[in-house]
Amino acid sequence: MEEGINLERPPRVGRVGYVNCLPIFYAIESGLVQLPAELVADHPSWLNHLLASGKIEVTAVSSIAYARNRKSCVILPDLSIASDGAVWSVALLSRMPVSKLNGRRVSLTPYSATSIALLQILLNRFYGVKAELFTRPQGVSPWWDDPDATLVIGDEALKLTCLPSTGVAEDLESPARGRDYYVYDLGVEWKRFTGMRMVFALWVARREFADRFPDLLREIWRALQVAKGWGCSHGDTVAGVAARLLGIPSAILTEYFRHLKYELSEPYIRGLRHFYECARQCGLIQTPVRIKIWREVYGYRITHGANR
User: Fold this and answer.
1) How far apart are the C-alpha atoms of 172 and 127, rounded to whole Å?
2) How confident is residue 7, by pLDDT bands cut at 50, 70 and 90?
3) Cβ contacts of residue 232 below 8 Å, gap of 6+?
4) Residue 303, pLDDT above cutoff 70
5) 50 in a domain, yes or no?
6) In terms of Cα–Cα distance, which of 28, 36, 24 is closest to 209?
7) 225 contacts 233 by C-beta, under 8 angstroms
8) Which residue range(s) make up the domain with 53?
9) Is pLDDT of 33 > 80?
């Protein structure tokens, strides 16, 4: 059951609990930028649930979650987690070439709806593979129950795919160096088959909150923009923090953050529209999706930087 908005408490803003959000949230969490809201950190799938149940007002959500809950929320402009090709932290690890996974068991992460939808689209629409998919329990190894391939995301994906000498393996013809599995970066695969960019997560606000408290939402959005600008212009600092959290060399994480994009300009919106249409054709959503972006950001000029 949805909770009503109660301004006796600060509004709540969801923060994906992976390092991919550090360029946006480090400046806020370190006190450099003031956010007029309380942060709630968790996995993407749980933030999707909190938004749908009305327990948070603004959050990053899996892009497929917006498609499924779009009547109750609006997209905030110029904020996303996206890639133009390699994303590094969304990957299929497979004991065999993906083209040979027909009828094989593939383990799905319990933490992300968009990554699962993207994998289903790639397997069904582009590879023509019908695998046996199952979702593993939370907190277990990606190889729990001995699957033939496993979908990993976020910090877990980085730890499994980042090699000390080369970063993320993208050679699809042989297993990743030093590993006994192939690594398929789903951002690379999406770009290879569609030529488009991939939006993995969006920032959205509950429609009721946007309608009733537009000034407060505008303050939250501006704080996120300022924090994003700081994070993207201090990449070495952010990579150093991430390195301490993950135990991965900061040079690799600096390159990782260069691959991630945090904007929502027209090329990314086109990629998002195509993703939704592919999802509809694969039966993952039932109706076409009209992307509605909240535009009440008066007096703030949106610019799309190279790594924003």
Assistant:
1) 14
2) low
3) 23, 262, 305, 307, 308
4) no
5) yes
6) 36
7) no
8) 12-82+197-281
9) yes
Q: What is the dihedral sign for C-alpha 159, 96, 285, 263?
A: positive
pTM higher than 0.70: yes
Nearest CA to 21 among 232, 168, 197?
A: 232
pLDDT in tens, 77-135: 999 999 999 999 999 999 999 999 999 999 999 998 999 999 999 999 999 999 999 99
Q: Residue 3: left if φ>0, alpha if ψ -120 to 50, beta else—which one?
A: beta
Token pair, residue 64, equals 């497929």
Tell me the C-alpha distance between 302 and 308, whole Å.
11
- Token pair of 150, please? 């496993």
Given 171, 194, 217, which residue is the final one in a domain?
194
SS3 category, 59: strand
Note the residue count of the chain: 308
Is 80 exceeded by the pLDDT of residue 3?
no
Q: Are residues 186 and 38 in the same domain?
A: no
Token code pair at residue 101: 């996974």
pLDDT of the residue at 176: 54
Q: Nearest CA to 201 among 49, 63, 55?
A: 63
Q: For residue 7, tell me if it sits in a domain.
A: no
Tell me, yes or no, whether 287 lies in a domain.
no
Look-up of token digits 């976020």 = 154
Task: Count up the domains in the chain and report the number.
Answer: 2
Q: Are residues 95 and 181 in the same domain?
A: yes
Q: Is residue 2 part of a domain?
A: no
> Do 231 and 149 fall within a single domain?
no
